[in-house]
Amino acid sequence: MVTQPPPNDVIADYLCFSLPMVKSPNDGAAADNARNIIDEFWPELEIAEACNGYGRKPYTGSHNLAIGGMVFYGMSMPHMLVEITGLGCHRLVERGQFNMIANRAIRDSLNITRYDVAVDFETDTDPEDFAAMRGKRWKSKKVFDEPTGKTVYIGARGGEKMARVYRYAPPHERSHLMRVEMEYGKGMAGIVLAQWLDTSDKKELAAALGKSFGWHHPDWTFTSDRKIKGYRQDVKHSKTLRWFRKAVLPAIDRMRGVLGDDHPVWDELAARLPENAQPNPRRAYRGVESSSTPENSSLLLSVKPTSPTLLKAPSDWVGYQGNAVTDNIDKGGEA
Asked: What pTM does this model have?
């Protein structure tokens, strides 16, 4: 049985990230590959129901996670998507595993695609009244008032962040609570997740996140001088970065396949990297299904857009070595 967090607690409410995976010849092979990756490298998530037949574009199939969530895959996809629901996040926190999973997701994933932070308030306030007292720049608002409850959406789903304010109607067991959920998408999700791991006082973090939505209602009692800056794409160098990712990196992968890892040319390449560049090898599990293809090769360079915070890794992280999983990933406190 999962216990509900008390009112005014700041909680991790949703986590979604993509993992590299070799392309598979058919859906059956993709399903096996996705399951192998979870079983071998993410056993805490545990597949509860394999090949349930439900897919979501562009994915063609999925597995259910025992903790709460899903894994999506497809034969033509070079990655898989892991979604951990609010219940799944709460179960991981109760088991003392959430920080470990979040750290591993930041280190190993291609992208943190979504991260939600939520707060429950024990109040009679109508969600629409709460949302009305917000920053003026947040003009987009939708209200859904149904027999089961009322939900107010602030912002747009396609943006880097949005918010939901809702409460259930009686006789629901949580009808005495109003929930504020702040959802972060690509670009911001990884930044907020890294801030979550770096912050011991989650209410201070909630205050900083709430500032961007401009919550002014008396129920919102969190205060902080902290600011969290979002990621902005480097438009000026976008063509150069596109050429680097599309042409240079595949050429380096082909060179490794021909020259091997011990050729002196790699020392020449390393000498040209910035002194503060952090090694970020592709994971061994990329080749769970097949380890002989060029796209499985490793490259000690991170090219995905991210914040400086996400490039830093504790010095005692060992990570994955071949097919072995090390357990000294999380040395910090639990959420």
From this structure: 0.72
